[in-house]
Amino acid sequence: MTASQRERRAALTDAVIEMLHEMEPDRIQMREVSERSRVALGTLYRYFPTKPHLLAASMVAWNDRLSRTLEAERRRAEESGVVDDRSVRDRVQALYRRQLRAFQRGPNFARLDLELTASSDPYVRESLQCRAQANHSATLALMDGVPDDVARVALLAIDGTMLAALAHWTAGRVSYAQAVRNVEDVVGLVLADHA
After folding, report:
1. What is the value of pTM for the model shown?
2. Each residue of 14-54: pLDDT tens digit?
3. Which domains does the chain have, with CATH numbers?
4. Which of 102, 130, 148, 187 is the most exposed place for a label (fewest CB within 10 A)?
5. Radius of gyration of the chain from its Cα atoms, rounded to whole angstroms
6. What is the rounded distance in angstroms from the CA atom of residue 94 to the CA atom of residue 62?
7. 184-186-191-195 Cα dihedral, nearest 10 degrees
8. Cβ within 8 Å of residue 84, ≥6 positions away
């Protein structure tokens, strides 16, 4: 992609991110995304032939914002010589707490995440896999010293709990505080030996 193509693509995903702060994913219309982003509708369809493709790319772009923030914080701490003396369990709990706070500020992103997770579209699955890899890398970076087999099982348990917590919270079956507690409890359980 050229620089201008990347800019147009980013303008489209940024418009969707902005819209998700205002409305549920099913209310987003391609024409309105085109108007908000100032990218021609035909160009939008060249980048994203379907709405699920656009929504998946937007979810990845939203997630990338947190990833960039975390990486910048890590670099600053490293450059300043700050050592994070929290336990592995506490660091992982803090990361998932931050992710949950982002969903709390934008519950439509949680709804979209659940919707996309259920998709059988290959582009959507691939996009979510890239997002999961970025999230897993951030989590594994906090699991320094945890054996690989334990870290793998911990990720499976935490991710499953996170997905269930989002589903139950967005459906009104549990409060936000309970969703957070569920995730923290599972992190505490699977990383109890690294507290």
Report:
1. 0.91
2. 999 999 999 999 999 999 999 999 999 999 999 999 999 99
3. 59-194 (1.10.357.10)
4. 148
5. 18
6. 19
7. 40
8. 77, 91
